[in-house]
Amino acid sequence: MRPTILLALSISVFVTGFVTQSAPVPVAQSEVTFTRDVAPILYSKCVACHRQGEVAPMPLFKATLAAPIRKAPGRTEFQRGILTPAQDGGWQVRTTGDQGSGILSSMSQANCFIVLDAGTGNVAAGEAVDVQLLEGLI
Hints:
Distance between the termini: 82 Å
Strand order of the largest sheet: 1-3-2-4-5
Radius of gyration: 26 Å
Order of helices and strands: HHEEEHEE
Strand content: 15-25%
């Protein structure tokens, strides 16, 4: 090939590649993302106190589980829960239902976390569980 043809071909490939590459599509401002919306709050408000292997400053207390929870041992879980007064003067708690991260109704209904440590497996109704209140309940 002649050098001028090779040069023209190289320029054409470069310009075509440059023009046809699409810019990344920005995430709509109304969409919640972990990196943009959640992580900055966690790092600014939580990381100073909540460190792996240490006790968090938020107290836990016991409540009676109103319905069974299925859980495999091996990791600590914080399930969203609804805490209500029990007839015996204590407290009872139940999950908000499915615990998926995209279930916003579950998040908005919760007034506590049900804390199930790593050694815990399935929990039967009537058993005492640890509960961590969300701000302002009591």
